[in-house]
Structure formats: C-alpha cells, structure tokens
Design goal:
The chain is 44% helix and 15% strand. The protein has 319 residues and is of the alpha/beta class. It is globular. A hairpin with a 6-residue loop joins strand 10 and strand 11. It has an eight-stranded parallel β-sheet. The chain has a three-stranded antiparallel β-sheet with strand order 7-11-10, with helices on one face.
Amino acid sequence: MYSNRITKLFGIGYPIIQAGMVWTSGWRLASAVSNAGGLGLIGAGSMYPEVLKEHIRKCKSACPKPFGVNLPLLYPDIEAHIKTIIEERVPVVFTSAGNPKTWTGTLKEKGITVVHVVSSSKFALKAQEAGCDAVVAEGFEAGGHNGREETTSMVLIPLVAEAVQIPVIAAGGIAGGKQMLAAFALGAEGVQLGSRFVASEEASSHPEFKKRVIDSKEGDTELSLKQLTPVRLLKNGFYRQVKELELRGATPAELQKLLGKGRAKKGMFEGELENGELEIGQVAASLNTILPAAVIVKNVWAEFEAGLNKLINGIHLKE
C-alpha cells in the first residue's frame, strides 16, 4: 500500500479514484474499486433520489471500505440527493458542474469529505476558498462534460498544483500507470480514471457501448455541443447531426432540441450506438480489453511502480 495526502484523506490503499460517470458508475463498480484499494464513486447524475439511496445501501453491503458519490451540482433535484447523502452517511462526495460554495459547507458540517472537479486554476482556487478538501484537475482529453477553456492535462495539472495548497487529483487522458506517473511528476497526488473503468466488467454501461469504446481509435472522439455544455463524444450518427447543425450556425435552442432528453441513457445504458450520446475520453483509443475493476486497479498501480523504478534506475545509471 501507499501513503500520501490523498490516501490519508480518503482512507484508501492506492491514490486511484474511479470517476462517478452517468449510466456507468453504479454500486457494483464503486464497491469493486473500493474493495480493491482505490476509491469507488457512485454516479448520482443519472439517478433518481430513490435509486441513489438503493445504490448507496447496496454499496455499503458489498463494501466495508470508503466509497463516495459524484454529484453534479446542476442536478435538478439536488436537495433530495444532498438529503440522501447525509442520511446515508456517505463519507466522500465529489461535486462538479456548479459553484462549490453552494453545498460544501453543508456537507462538511456533517463530516463529509468534499472534492470539486475543476478545469482551471481559477476555479481550483474558488474550490479551495469554499472549503473543499481536494480538487480534481480535469483536462481537455477527458470524456463527458468538459471545460470551455480546452486546457490539456499536461498544462492544467501543474497550474492547479501551483495555485492551491490542497491536494490535486489529475483526470483527463489517464488510463494506466505511466500516465499516472506523469501526472504525479506534474504535481498531482492522485488520479481519477473514467474511460478505463467504463471498459470494466462491473460498469453498468451497455456491453455494446463498452465494445465500441475498446474498438475506438485515435481521432474517434471530439469535443462537441460547445454552445450548450461542452461534451466529448464518440463519433456516430448523433455526433454527425450535431456537427452538421453547428456548421450551419445553429442556435443553442436548435441544439437543445436535437439533444432532447434521455440521449445519454439511450447511448451508454441502452446501447443505441448510432442515435445515442456516447461520452468517452480520448484515452479510449489506448484501451483494448474489458477487465474486472480490481484487475484495473492492480494493473494501474503495478505499471506506476514499474515506471517509477525504471525512471529512478535510469537516472542512477546516467549518474
């Protein structure tokens, strides 16, 4: 096991966090990651309040170790989710897509560790001022909803690490131990993996979506819907419709009409690969297997240690 500010903050063995992705991160995935020594997160953004409560309780039953909930602050019934999280005594909450000042104080008063996802050093400082215990610096490479600044992880991580005193978790373009080692060299103390855990046996995403992810190549994703909320998508029929509208100079209202409701569920959960919204990161191009979550955690850590030893030995040899 390993010890730094992130492992101590969450009470985990490895500074490896599974992102709380919509339609993918249920109790099975979160409990599997936490039981393997990382931190598993339940993705609350695609759950009704009663569904979230069910997933939290099942995760508790399956996992004696710490786990958390990822909570998009733009969720329409946010008060219900906050109430559930507090009543069920969830130990860790990752917030995103909103102002961290709104709920951080309430959660921390209940003894909950709070982490906020940011796409710039400016927002990282705001999260620190709001009382967050750590931040996730998520680069442009990431899947799902993304920062408008389009700052890559190689640029973002050191900027955020220099700006704040609280620990930094790197996200965006990370699926293995080599990328984790690079993130640590840039100032991160933990990593959050999304796409790699989408392609896991325990992920609740549709098997056909998982297969599409591991079959994807470089250039198969693109940041889209920038006039609404930027989101990185696998290129498919829905993406091409969006692209056509954007090239014609469509208004946000036209894009919202095309997006409609349930588009992400249709694609990622129900397996409608042409007309659904398929959110995934650029790093999907490096994935070619669907693995158990525990094996993913083990492999990432083993590759991190091997890379670190190789780097240290290489430096010594040159000396």
